[in-house]
Amino acid sequence: MRKTGDPYISHCIYTGKIVAVLVPSNGEKAINTVVAGILHDVVDDTCESLHSIEREFDADVAKLVAGVSRLSYINQLLRRHRRKNVSQATLSHDEANNVRVMLLGMVDDPRVVLIKLADRLHNMRTIYALPYAKAQAVAEETLAIWCSLASRLGLWALKAELEDLCFAVLQPKIFHQLRADLASMWSSTNKASNLRRISAKPSAIKQYPEFEETPEGEEENLSMKVLLQAVLPFDLLLDRKKRIIFFKNLEMCLDTPKKPKVVRDAGTALASLVVCEEALERELFISTSYIPGMEVTLSGRLKSLYSVYSKMKRKDIGINKVYDARALRVIVGDKNGTLHGQAVQCCYNLLNIIHRLWTPIDGEFDDYIVNPKPSGYQSLHTAVQGPDSSPIEIQIRTQRMHEYAEHGLAAHWLYKETENLLPFKNSVVDSEIMVSSDFPNQIEDQDSVENDPFIKYRALKSGHPVLRVEAGHLLAAVIVRVDNEGRELLVAVSFGLAASEAVADRRSSYQIKRWEVYASLYKKVSDEWWCEPGHGDWCTCLEKYTLCRDGIYHKQDQFQRLLPTFIQIIELTEQEETEYWCVVSAVFEGKTITSDVSNSIYEERSSFNSNSTLVDTGINHKVQLLRTMLQWEEQLRSEAGHRQLNLAAKKYVNGDSVSLDEVAIVCWPHGEIMRLRTGSTAADAARRIGLDGKLVSVNGQLVLPNTELRDGDVVEVRM
């Protein structure tokens, strides 16, 4: 029996059910993962052995169960370390070595992590059965370690539930107050008039107390068990049908006095999301402006209360300024990428529909399709005043963009069987950015780098490429003149250059050809001496655009009226900017792009690509996962020395961590992980493989034999 009074088998079954939500619905790997989830405690808590598991099931299941058992070592190690080594702030060498062995094993089969996270999630759902002090310790550990790992692996919905369960245990009063405030804000009965627009400027904010310890044994009206019931299960946010059924069942008891208010408030929050979903669904159903035949699906989510509170503290804003506390996501089908360009066009059509349905909030539109995040994430984000006059964030993306953003590293690397080329060196470098930034959830905070658009666009200059958006029509355009310190732009639009395909593959290797299109348009305008709005010919026209308070450049007609048509500035990376102006220079000088400029710009990429062989993308995924695990390892070492966690803003420093005096690398092309001494060189790696004296490439580039290797490097010894 468990301490909750339930049979122990219930924990195993619930763990298996949680795993089933996280893995694909079919396939041998997925089935074995669920089976191992049910059996994850058998070896540790019964007289059964791994041999008997392998005999009754198979070797794959036994391997997963063994991996989960080893993974539990993290908890034991950290707890024992804090208890015994009060004066020691870091792990010992042996402890650190054991952690690394375990983490490298997780890289070989990340399904172990899914099972462990499912195990921890169910334990957190029933943590009320533990003594208060122990429950707090487990919640702190979960928030610091397992929420972090779920985040790094891209398991956003599970991470959100874990965070709120920890938040309810560690800060029950703040949890309860936030739940009540959001329910009040989203309750239609508390709304006055329907305001037409919300200003994005700061307002008076309600102050919440800092995180502080709740006195042990303090009697409150709300028990921990009740607060945990007010945390919505993560699978409700993944499955709309489950959400509607759950809501209907909850609706019958929302007005029942016996039901605690905090639970009724959770129901109110869910109800507000369902209302928004249904309102948008009706509008999309009756609207004929999006492309016929494109499959459009709708989903929603509630931001975790822990994330809401963290954002309020970080940005010093009130709860009514957390515009993404609830969000809807619209996904446009692209038939496995074959209609990606049309799907992108549909995304902008849908944006137009939503802005007609609900009033946009000033300054809250972000176009990550035109300007992808460093991780490659693409989506349209806008915040609007929903049907209850409260803010709601809307995200619009294609199916391909959604799969890239939402699968999570563990699921994405485990179950993708397609073959592809290893990405260019730049892609491998980008993966470091992606994993090191804790994978900003695409529904999480999407703050602009620069809040003031007038400052942000002051550096614009003539010739810069932009995108003209009118409903769902995307056209290539280029800035001809910048006036009034960037507040007004004269833009040349080419009505013969549809840009939806170019936008869909912004980071592709063919981008240099698209830069040539923009450069040719700019040269045409310069050669013709067109310099005023209205100038142009049958396929090119100059238009005036003004930067408005919503942070967008809107078209201005001859009567000085602002129109819905707008342009989106294409924000170039440092490398893209160099490439683009190289192309512009070549076009103005009359050079042939493909033979001269393209070869010089892509010399390094071509060199790397010519030496690459066709391999499973799982190898590149393994590289990224290895780097993720190595970074998480540093956090674990730091966590071992923490006495009290700063829950408002956890920052991990590894300057005092014990050094293992080794590096872990990935051997190309088979993906074996090799551990070498710190300071080992490319020649040492070749010698270890048995190919001493051969040429060695590191991360796709040929290097000198004395080149020092680093954690996470991809090493190939040329035959």
From TrEMBL:
InterPro entries linked to this entry: Beta-grasp_dom_sf, DUF7589, HD/PDEase_dom, HD_domain, NT_sf, RelA_SpoT, TGS, TGS-like
The keyword Nucleotide-binding belongs to this UniProt entry's keyword annotation: yes
Keywords for this protein: GTP-binding, Nucleotide-binding, Stress response
SMART domains referenced in this protein's UniProt entry, alphabetically: HDc (SM00471), RelA_SpoT (SM00954)
Matches recorded under SUPFAM superfamilies: HD-domain/PDEase-like, Nucleotidyltransferase, TGS-like
Domain of life of the organism encoding this protein: Eukaryota
GO biological process: guanosine tetraphosphate metabolic process
Annotated HD domain residues: 8-124
Pfam families in the cross-refs: DUF7589, HD_4, RelA_SpoT, TGS
A GO cellular component annotation in the UniProt record: chloroplast
GO MF, one example: GTP binding
EC identifiers of the protein: 2.7.6.5
Family: Belongs to the RelA/SpoT family.
PANTHER family linked to this entry: GTP PYROPHOSPHOKINASE, GUANOSINE-3',5'-BIS DIPHOSPHATE 3'-PYROPHOSPHOHYDROLASE
Name of the protein in question: GTP diphosphokinase
Lineage: Eukaryota, Viridiplantae, Streptophyta, Embryophyta, Tracheophyta
